[in-house]
Structures are given as structure tokens and as C-alpha cells.
Amino acid sequence: MSEWGLFRRRFMRHRLAVGASLLLLLIAAAALFADRIAPYAFDAIDLPNRSKPPTLDGWHVFGTDKIGRDYFSRVLYGTRTSLLVAITVALLSTAIGTVVGAVAGYYRGWIDELLMRVTDFVLSLPFLAVLLVAAAYVGQGSPGRVAVILALLLWTNIARIVRGQYLSLREKEFVEAARALGATDARIIFRHILPNTLGPIIVNATLCVALAILLESTLSFLNFGIQPPNPALGKLIADGQGSMLTQWWLVTMPGLAIVAICLSINFVGDGLRDALDPAQAVR
User: Fold this and answer.
1) Fewer CB within 10 A of the terminal residue: the chain, N end or C end?
2) Dihedral sign, CA of 93, 99, 100, 102?
3) Measured between alpha carbons, how far is 31 from 41 in angstroms, rounded to an integer?
4) 216-235 average pLDDT score
5) 14, 271 in Cβ contact below 8 A?
6) Contact present, 106 and 170 (Cβ < 8 Å)
7) What's the pTM?
8) In the chain, what are the domains?
9) Helix axes 127-134, 198-221, angle to 10 degrees
């Protein structure tokens, strides 16, 4: 059986991961095609139907806010924004951490020492304080800028993981063979060793998406993240917290969306970890 076949077989055994994958794909597809699925524009105001609880009347299935905006539409568009930010964060932080960890683990010596001290410095920073200050002065409510800020603070974990993998793999026979054949360091690092570290990288990148969504929602909730007119799940919760006792759906619906996304990603991450672990291979 091919490696892909073994991977698929092991992943399919993880029923929670399979179910979570289907749910995550459904949520992502709904967010991606929000323009076609949403019954209303996310900023459309309908004063006669303001503060309406969830109902099929007018297809306000998530209710409306105090100025009549359809909350199902706003949650769809907010999910799109949050997922876009989270995926960007995962890609950027994984790229930065992979390069740093690969270079440090392969060369060792003073290069390893320098890069790991930089990593330790970033880890020692008061995370929330730095994040809030950076978001306030640099983010300016832009999804792209918020994503870059988060990525610059979240690459350290993957860097340590990749470094550990490279420290063990650099002495393997296939690396020595590549050196003997005259392969450059860059080719050895990215062509020969990197494919053997993709398992931990993929798992951590997946889990980074969930962490990024939680952090972006926290920033938006504290009014340091995504700003209007861009809808975001954390901002929707912040807007509805003042009337959550009388209009519970304003907090509950975007909150459930965050919980569903993060739980699904965590279950998928668990399934990927089990499927990519050689100890789980079918004998």
C-alpha cells in the first residue's frame, strides 16, 4: 500500500477527525460563498425588523441586531474574515518558523545559538501586552495587518519543533549521501530533509489556525482587532455583549461559530497527528 493509502486509512479510523473535517469544510464553504448564501448583505439595515430573535420569518435564522441587520449574514461574513486571518497567520508563522528552525538545526554552532536566542527573546515577551500594543499602533483594524502581527509572534513553537527534527536528521545516511554527491546546503535543507519533517509541521500549522482564530477574536472583542466595516466573529460578540441578557443570540451565534471552528480544527489536528505518526502504521 502506498504512503498516501496508509495515511488515508489511518486518518479514516479517527471518526471524530473525519466528522470534524466534514464540518470544517462545510463552514469554510459557507464562508467562502457568503455572497451567494447570505440572505442579506452584512450591513443591510432593516429597522422594522430590529432586535428580532431567531426565526424563519424573513429567514432571520440567527435573529437581527438592534438596527435590523441580519445576524446569519453577519456571522457568515465574520467567519470568512476570521478564517482568512487565521489561515494567513498559520501560513506565515509556519514559513518563518520552518526556515528559522531548519537553518538553526542544520548548521548548529553560533548560528543555532543566535537564532535560538532570538526565539527565546520572542517567547519571553509578555504576549498579550505586546499583541495589544502592536495591534493598536500598527494593526489599525486591517485583517492583513492583524494577521502579520499574529504571525510574527506565533512562529516560535514551530521553529523549536523543526530545529529538533533537523538536529536528528542531519546525521542520517541520506544526508551524508547527498553531501557526498555535491548537493548544496540549501538543497539538502529544503529538498532532502524538509520532506521528512512535514508531519509535525502540518499538524502544528493546523492547530495554529485554531489558535489564530481565538487570538483574532480576542483582539476584536477588545476593540484592538478587526474594525468596521469588516465583520469579524470577535467584534460581533463585543457588539452584542451589552444586551446579551435580553438578546442572547447576538453573543451566542458568533460564539458557537468560534467553538465549532476551533473544536473541528483540534479534532482534525489530532487525526493528522495519529495518521502521520509512524508508530500508528499498519503492520
Assistant:
1) C
2) positive
3) 13
4) 84
5) yes
6) yes
7) 0.88
8) 3-280 (1.10.3720.10)
9) 60
- As given in the structure block, the three cell numbers for residue 243 are 444586551
Q: Of 232, 217, 229, 223, whose CA–CA distance to 78 is shortest?
A: 232
* CA distances for 50 relative to 21, 64, 169, angstroms: 35, 6, 61
Nearest to 188 by CA among 173, 199, 203, 210: 173
**Cell numbers at 62, concatenated:** 440567527
Q: How far apart are CA 211 and CA 265, in angstroms?
A: 10
Spatial distance between the Cα atoms of 8 and 281, rounded to a whole number of angstroms? 11
DSSP 93-154: HHHHHHHHHHHHHHH-HHHHHHHHHHHHHHHHS-HHHHHHHHIIIIITT-HHHHHHHHHHHH
- Tell me if the bond preceding 228 is cis, omega within 30° of 0: no
Residue 16: phi, psi to the nearest 5?
-60, -40
The total of other beta-carbon atoms located within 10 Å of residue 237's CB is 23
To the nearest 10°, the Cα dihedral for 247, 248, 251, 254?
-110
Per residue in 131-184, pLDDT (tens digit) is 888 877 776 677 888 889 899 999 999 999 999 999 988 888 888 898 888 888
Q: Is the pLDDT of residue 80 over 50?
A: yes
Residue 154 CA neighbour count, 13 Å, CB half: 31
For the chain, what is the radius of gyration of the CA atoms?
22
Q: What angle do CA 268, 274, 280 make, to 5 degrees?
A: 155
Return d(Cα 217, Cα 211) in angstroms, integer: 10
φ/ψ (deg, to 5) at 70: -70, 125
Residue 280 is predicted with a pLDDT of 47
